[in-house]
Amino acid sequence: MDSKLAEAAERALVEATQKLRPEERLNAFLEHCRLVTQLFETGQKMRDAGTSQLKP
Amino acid sequence: MRTTKAGESALLLLDVVDILVTDNIEYAVVGALAAAVHGAVRASMDADALLSIGVQEAKNLEVGLRDAGFLAELTRGDFDDPIPGLLEVSDSFGNRVDLLLGLKGMDLQAFSRTIEVPFQGNTLKFIGREDFIAMKVFAGGPMDLLDATRAMSAGRDSLDMELIRRLAKGYGRDALNSLDQLLRQ
User: Fold this and answer.
1) Among B52, B74, B89, B109, which residue has the least CB neighbours within 10 Å?
2) Domain housing A33
3) Chain B neighbours among A 36-55 (CB < 8 Å)?
4) What interface predicted TM-score (ipTM) does this complex get?
């Protein structure tokens, strides 16, 4: 897929990340991974249960 | 606002979704967060969602997001861009949510096939797995195809293959060919 909008968004994301100091970048990455892991684990539970909906 | 530091784009998404729900705007989380839900963890630090609105409604949403204290900027895609428009939402920490105003070739029923995933005490609507896979074979980059492969392998028995083929076909011949290649692997 060729999308100038998607490419521009990707560039902006990289630029925003590069504005952080290395330690800030690492901490941001760790926090992001923590949140994404929550979603991954919830998705795994939903697949195991064969459901498309879970209550919070 | 829920965010307090960088790395919290997923929490910024929760704030944005609060506004979408208030405005009765249908959405489906896509991108790296959807990849995680469907079994493919990767490192992209933004959050993406597809919206079921056009450019005019997006302009109103842009104003509403700014009024709520977010940085928001709407950009329209070129005529031949598969993404008609993008509303970029960010905060002072550099967290970022990209709201896509559709995707050419996407089945609009995708919004009725979303899955509801609990997250941080709230519920987010994620693009369904079949729609996610079709979208990824359309995107077609190496990471996209890896996401599609992982999403398929995370529970192939429960996948509706007929639906995936129909959805991929909606994106065009190249997407369907990419899907067939993945299925042969």
Assistant:
1) B109
2) 21-45
3) 36-40, 42-44, 46-47, 50, 52-55
4) 0.87
